[in-house]
Structure formats: structure tokens, C-alpha cells
Amino acid sequence: MSLRTLSAKTGIHRGHLSRAERGLAGLGDDNIRKVAEALGVTPADITHEEKS
Predict the structure, then answer these.
(1) Number of domains into which the chain is organized
(2) Name one GO molecular function term (predicted).
């Protein structure tokens, strides 16, 4: 999925998503949930948190 599409689905600015992808910015819990939902995965799947 392109950053442009992900931005449209989540409402998160494309530049912020790009910085987060490169490790230059973080995403808050709400934005992590939005990204996970748009990608069809759980938040744990896109973070370094262990699954319970």
C-alpha cells in the first residue's frame, strides 16, 4: 500500500507516515490503531510489542 493510500485511509499526513516508516518520528496509540486497521492487521503486528 502506498503512503498516499494509507494517508487517505487513516487521515494521517503522508509526511508523518513517511517519517514514522523511516524511524524519524513515532506514532501515538490512536494512530497505530488507525494504521493497523487500514492494513488489516493488529497493532501488535506493526509494533515491537509482544503478543499476549
Answers:
(1) 1
(2) DNA binding
